[in-house]
């Protein structure tokens, strides 16, 4: 099981910004996560967080993600799990739900578009 890059349980080594071409392809993506030490608590909501505070915290988290060398990998991980809480890969949980809904609609449309023979067979 993949450990959250936000977790304080991971090694306390600050992430390095490494160009993709120079990365160790065998290393797990989260070893390069900029948020490995989320000391400011930006990525997950505390209980009973007021809306204005949540929006501000999420924007701050997204700014961190914007400078993260593994943002794409992190985002795809969060979408595939799917991760139900927190900011991952620059997206909030609500934004990830929108992306997943779009992907599901796209997949349905692609299936329809690539199976015209079914319609012909059913009609004939
Ligand atoms: S993209 Fe954001 S949430 Fe994901 S590892 Fe990087 S800093 Fe953390």
Which ligands does the model contain, each kind named once? iron/sulfur cluster
Terminal Cα span: 50 Å
Number of helices: 4
Judged by helices, strands and strand pairing, the structural class is: mainly alpha
Average predicted confidence as pLDDT: 83
- What assembly state would you assign to the polypeptide chains in this entry? single chain
- How would you sum up the global shape? elongated
Say how many strands there are.
0
Describe the protein in words.
With 124 residues, this protein is an all-alpha fold. The chain has helices spanning 51-66, 71-80, 93-113, 116-123. The protein is elongated and about 60 Å long. The structure holds iron/sulfur cluster. Iron/sulfur cluster is lined by residues 5, 33-35, 43, 64-65, 68, 70-71, 74, 87-90.
Keywords:
124 residues, mainly alpha, 44% helix, elongated, binds iron/sulfur cluster, Transcriptional regulator WhiB, 4FE4S_WBL, cytoplasm, DNA-binding
Layout: helices, strands, pairs:
Layout: H1 51-66, H2 71-80, H3 93-113, H4 116-123
The structure holds iron/sulfur cluster (SF4).
Condensed summary:
The protein has helices at 51-66, 71-80, 93-113, 116-123. With 124 residues, the chain is mostly helical.
């Amino acid at each position: 099981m993949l450990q959250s890059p936000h977790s304080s349980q991971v090694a306390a080594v600050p992430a390095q910004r490494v160009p993709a071409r120079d990365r160790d392809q065998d290393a797990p993506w989260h070893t390069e996560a900029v948020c490995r030490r989320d000391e400011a608590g930006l990525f997950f909501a505390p209980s009973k967080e007021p809306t204005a505070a949540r929006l501000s915290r999420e924007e701050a988290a997204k700014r961190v993600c914007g400078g993260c060398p593994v943002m794409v990998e992190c985002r795809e991980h969060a979408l595939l799990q799917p991760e139900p809480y927190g900011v991952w890969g620059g997206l909030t949980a609500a934004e990830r739900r929108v992306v997943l809904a779009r992907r599901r609609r796209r997949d349905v449309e692609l299936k329809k578009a690539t199976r015209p023979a079914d319609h012909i067979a059913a009609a004939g």
